Amino acid sequence: MESKIEVLSTIKIENSPDLYKIVDSLNRTLKERDLMFGLSLDQEDQNKAVFTIYRT
Fold it and tell me: What is the model's pTM?
């Protein structure tokens, strides 16, 4: 059985120390709806974060 992950949306935003809390809350709340959220630092600008929404 193959797992398919689809990127629904990606956006660059200003980095903030508490962003991970929002992503964690979204993941815990919406996993039953086959949604997953990711957060990473922008490779080109460490002051920006990349927020991604996935369908699993």
Answer: 0.88
